[in-house]
Amino acid sequence: MADYEMRKKANIGSSSLILIFIVLCLATFGLLSLGNAKGDELLSVRNAAAVKEYYRADGLGEEFVQLVDRALLEADGDTAKEVKREVLSRLGDYYQEEKECFLTDIPMGAGQALRVELQADWQERTVRVQSWKVYIREDYEIDQSVNVWSGAE
């Protein structure tokens, strides 16, 4: 009689093992999904911060365009040389003689900057955007402190 009861208990154990295995699999997939969702949230927060920083710099770039445009329109003078002289007396710090354009760099986060280059038409008193781009302004250093095997003995 005791032998019969032992065989009956063994059959119940195999279905329990399968059920435990399924629960472990579901728990593992749940934890993996949770980790993936946390990574996605972190990535979206970083992306939102980068976009916000770009549009802040973009707004400052638009203000720079307005500053140069206003200086051109308000300049007193009949000839292009007189207009250029007066505008450069006000905004000479932004003018690059070798490129013959107004230039400013607006710092952004993560070592980036927005560079705005404007070409002035002194005769027509207009300004044209020559370049509007984001670039890396800080050189980053690669960590060389870990000794890596080069293949030579």
Description:
The chain has 153 residues and is an alpha+beta fold. The protein is built from two helices and four strands. It has helices spanning 2-74, 80-91; strands at residues 95-96, 101-107, 112-121, 126-136. It is elongated. The relative contact order is 0.09. The mean pLDDT is 86.
Topology:
Blueprint: H1 2-74, H2 80-91, E1 95-96, E2 101-107, E3 112-121, E4 126-136
Antiparallel strand pairs: 1-2, 2-3, 3-4
- The total of helices stands at 2
| Beta strand count | 4
**Share of helix among residues?**
55-70%
H and E string: HHEEEE
* C-alpha end-to-end distance: 72 Å
Strand order of the largest sheet: 1-2-3-4
Mean pLDDT: 86
Taking all Cα atoms into account, the compactness measure Rg is 33 Å
Q: What is the molecular shape?
A: elongated
What structural class do you assign from the helix and strand content? alpha+beta
The stretches of 5 or more residues where confidence is low (pLDDT under 50) are none
- Tell me the major beta sheet: 4 strands, antiparallel
| β-strand amount | 15-25%
